[in-house]
Amino acid sequence: MTPDDLQAVLLTLKLAAVTTALLLLIATPVAWWLAHTRSIWKGPVGALVNLPLVLPPTVLGFYLLLVMGPEGAVGRMTESLGLGRLPFTFWGLVVGSVLFSLPFAVQPIQNAFEAMGKRPLEAAATLRAGPLDRFFSVALPLAKPGFLTATVLAFSHTVGEFGVVLMLGGNIPGETQVVSVAIYNHVEAMEYGPAHLLAGGMVAFSFLVLLALNLLSRRREA
Questions:
Q1: In-domain check, residue 51
Q2: Which of 20, 57, 73, 128 is least buried, going by the fewest C-beta atoms within 10 A?
Q3: Rounded to the nearest 5 degrees, what angle is found at the Cα of 86, between the Cα atoms of 80 and 89?
Q4: Degrees, nearest 5: CA angle 11-54-33
Q5: What is the CATH number of the domain that holds 91?
């Protein structure tokens, strides 16, 4: 494995870890609202959250590139705050990864909240537990399987990204070059040995993810 490949692996793991942590923070209130609201906005918000499931990654990456670029609203705002431009930086990859993997975090948590039902929360309310106490002491522990599934899916989905990260980050070794882009580079250069090594690692990782999800599913059924 070349130094650039090793950097790509480490950068991919760092991106997946940061993205997963942010996704859990963002997806939890969104999933809670979707699981309990009766608002007419539930349908549109749910469709917007799940849009990355059907939207080509390059399309999402293209529009994010425009929005975060020098002429975009977000780009002008970050430059005015002295933060510079997000495209072709690690944090630009984080923004794209969070948006692209959002449904993989929201759906399992939402399903866990819905499966929990209202009775445990109502029982806690009769014991004079406040809203925050009911959420942290009752809802979160009962929804733990959903959070575990969301963590595994969000992390693994971020590791396997290609279109969004290529559009937003380009191909800068040590800065934005992740494993999927490194594999693409090796194949383009007809360097099949390094490509096999990285691709084989991705296959093994994907197998372990599916195995972990299967074990989580069995534990819930037991």
A1: no
A2: 128
A3: 140
A4: 85
A5: 1.10.3720.10
pLDDT tens per residue, range 39-76: 899 999 999 999 999 988 889 999 999 999 888 888 88
Q: Which residues, 6+ apart, have CB-to-CB distance to 111 below 8 Å? A: 146
What is the domain range of residue 135?
Answer: 3-35+56-221
Domain count, the chain: 1
Closest CA to 26 of 109, 115, 137: 109
Can you tell me which residue has the tokens 């809670």? 32
Between the alpha carbon of residue 151 and those of residues 138, 196, 216, the distances in Å are 20, 27, 12
* Residue 46 located in a structural domain: no
* pTM, two decimal places: 0.88
Q: Is residue 50 a part of any domain in this protein?
A: no
Residue 70: inside a domain = yes
Residue carrying structure tokens 């360097």: 191
